[in-house]
Write a structure and sequence with these properties.
It comes from Zizania palustris. The chain is an alpha+beta fold and 156 residues long. The chain folds into 2 domains: 42 residues, no CATH class; 99 residues, no CATH class. Helices cover 32% and strands 10% of the residues.
């Protein structure tokens, strides 16, 4: 499992570090100069789903908008081809079973936000079971290392 130290190492390679800023908490800071327009940080999202305006407007994997085909099982997810469907299959397989079990009325209530939360839980489950890999920058457990700005309920 990826650790805080592995994240620090990955950031150092990119010319970045996590620093403590008095009164603000932790911050991501540059440890070298960057050129104007240079990409500082780029990372694949932990999970994603199209924020669909209309059904079938984007591929659930790459967000392409052409040659889309509906998943034949759940009939909610859309893919632009077999490569995208295969790339996302480990995650979608679990989501697909859950969606397929829903009634048509319930399927209509699936918003992109609900699907995103379901995918987040499923991806975390798959990483905990080691069914899909995690890296120093792709690990939900790093969320636990974030500094909270929310007061515990007993202070309120």
């Amino acid at each position: 499992m990826a650790s805080w130290a592995e994240l620090q190492e990955e950031l150092a390679v990119r010319g970045l570090a996590v620093a403590s800023v008095p009164g603000k908490g932790r911050a991501l800071v540059a440890t070298r100069s960057f050129f104007p327009g240079e990409v500082v940080v780029w990372q694949e999202p932990y999970v994603s789903t199209p924020n669909k305006i209309s059904e079938g407007s984007n591929c659930d994997n790459c967000f392409a908008s052409s040659n889309l085909r509906k998943c034949s099982v759940c009939r909610v997810a859309w893919y632009c081809g077999s490569a995208c469907q295969k790339e996302e299959w480990k995650l979608h397989q679990l989501e697909c079973r859950a969606i397929a079990a829903l009634t048509e009325d319930r399927k209509k209530m699936l918003t992109p936000t609900i699907r995103l939360m379901v995918r987040l839980v499923l991806r975390r489950k798959l990483q905990n079971e080691k069914a899909i890999p995690s890296s120093g920058t792709d690990n939900y457990n790093l969320v636990d290392a974030l500094e909270s700005r929310i007061l515990p309920f007993w202070y309120i």
